[in-house]
Task: inverse folding
């Protein structure tokens, strides 16, 4: 991702970012569970969904540690 892409995301409101993230996760979940999708697409979508949730979990852990330190 380049600086211009980061700037585009950074200008969005929190609610917009949450909506985009939720839509992306839902779409990835739909593709990973779509019996009509080829295995390669299902696997790739499943891997990406897992990666997104991993990043969410990492952010949650950082937030929890930060809150505990206060």
Result:
């Amino acid at each position: 991702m380049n600086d211009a892409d980061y700037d585009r995301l950074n200008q969005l409101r929190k609610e917009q970012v949450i909506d985009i993230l939720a839509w992306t996760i839902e779409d990835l979940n739909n593709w990973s569970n779509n019996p009509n999708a080829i295995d390669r697409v299902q696997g790739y979508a499943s891997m990406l969904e897992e990666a997104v949730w991993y990043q969410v979990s990492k952010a949650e852990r950082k937030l929890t540690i930060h809150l505990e330190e206060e």
About this structure: The chain has one domain: 13-69. The chain is about 85% helix and 0% strand.
